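User: Teach me something about this protein's shape.
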Amino acid sequence: MQAEELNKVIKELGMKSPDTQNELTEAALFNLMFETQIGPSGYMKAYMRPETAQGIFINFKRLLEYNNGKMPFAAAQIGLGFRNEIHPK
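Assistant: First, the predicted structure itself:
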């Protein structure tokens, strides 16, 4: 459904928050992908899957400690990204 269609259905059915019974806000589009800049100039945009970026956020405090409390110039993550796929094996 598009956002307009979803908003119409929510209003028609009188949907409310299950916990607080408050009215729901308007539906909004958002990107679940993690945006970053790549290339020597940093002007090129790239998008990573959210689960691949978790390590950078978790390890940020450690990066800050390694740089003696100064903001790190850059951080990179190298590793494998696993997908939740069903294999016939």
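Now, about its shape. The first helix runs from residue 3 to 13. The chain has a mean pLDDT of 81. If you'd like, I can walk through any region in more detail.
User: That's plenty for now, thanks!
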